[in-house]
Amino acid sequence: MTGAHRLFASVITSSNCSRRFAARAQLQNATEQLEQRLLMDAETTSVSLETAGAPDLGPAATFRKLVRGDFNGDGREDIAVWMSNRDWQIGIAGENGEFTYTTWTAWAGNEVKEIHVGDFNNDGKDDIIGLFRNGDRGRWWAALSEGSKFVNRHWGDYGNYEGIHSVLVGNFDGVKGEDLAVIANSGVVWMAKTSNTRFQYLEALRWNLSNGFEFAQVGNFNGDSRDDIVAVFGTGAQRVIRVAKSIGPAAGFYSSKWADLTVTQSLDSVLVGDFDGDGRSNIAVLLNGTRLWCGRSNGQTFTMEHWLNWSAITDGFESISIEDSNSDGLADVVARISTGMRYSAQSTGSGFVHRNLSQLSTITDGFDFDEYSDIEIIEFLNGLIPW
Length: 387
Ligand SMILES: [Ca+2]
Ligand SMILES: [Ca+2]
Ligand SMILES: [Ca+2]
Ligand SMILES: [Ca+2]
Known about the structure:
The protein is mainly β and 387 residues long. The chain is 9% helix and 50% strand. The protein has helices spanning 32-44, 59-62, 361-365, 374-384; strands spanning 4-12, 18-28, 48-51, 63-69, 78-83, 87-93, 99-106, 112-118, 127-134, 137-145, 150-158, 164-170, 179-184, 188-194, 199-206, 213-219, 228-233, 238-246, 253-262, 267-273, 282-287, 291-297, 302-309, 319-323, 332-336, 342-347, 352-357.
């Protein structure tokens, strides 16, 4: 096989609603490695191969939103797809990496944004929240999981539909279910604390977003019972990493500088993970393409240390994320490059070590959606599931 091909390898069971996905690969000039991968897969499962052209639809033409969470609370990550017909199709992950899709609810709103996953009623099953346009205002609807379907509940309002910079999910007040942090364009950070029935807003902080504001993410940087927020401020060579530490349900966030950051060329990524295993979230900062720094938290500041010159990703990456790639309890940085190869900057607790992650592992261990970009999953779903 020569030239560019798109190859799907799939197993489809006899049931209409259960489809087992075994392997998929995108071929840019066939390689021995890929053939070995497929051969190996063919030995362990009955694989049917089909070639397909590149999808001719933009993702939005087929469905609107794809999110992940554990919607039935069994510990395995599931997938949720909001379809163009407004149904929510939920694919529940089975033991062997198969996904069983059923419709759990429908959302009728024409304009919905800020669709996020969290356990908003604190029952151990992930729910989906969305902000529906209601004139100039927004109305939160929560699709609360009952394990095999959602019930939709009005979960409070937000005053300015267009006025949101970003929304983060975490248990910021440390009680009950997960909450939202709504970062308004004005710089006000609202702690939208979940009660059993709706969000209650606390004006928790005011940040100045006007001089550069990026990489806002959730972590628990002091290791207490409440989630916090980290963000990078500034645009030039000298930037500041600030943490908004949650100081409780009534007091909100306290923001302070946790590190200075010197950006001589590019600031490529900021990620949150517990790389030293002490229960406090740290940050990993990728600078100048390959320079991977770790900012270890002592609960009050980050100590920035250069842990790896990650030459394997010199040519860039398609996605970068945090996972525990060797299951040692320490978070690692995992990058996926354009050939489909995955590399890990594995934490030793005091440094990162480059590792090649085998492309085969997730096929034999069970399919993991994190392996693939959203676009690939969308292509996969478009190709496999007749909506
Ligand atoms: Ca699950
Ligand atoms: Ca729930
Ligand atoms: Ca909470
Ligand atoms: Ca905290």
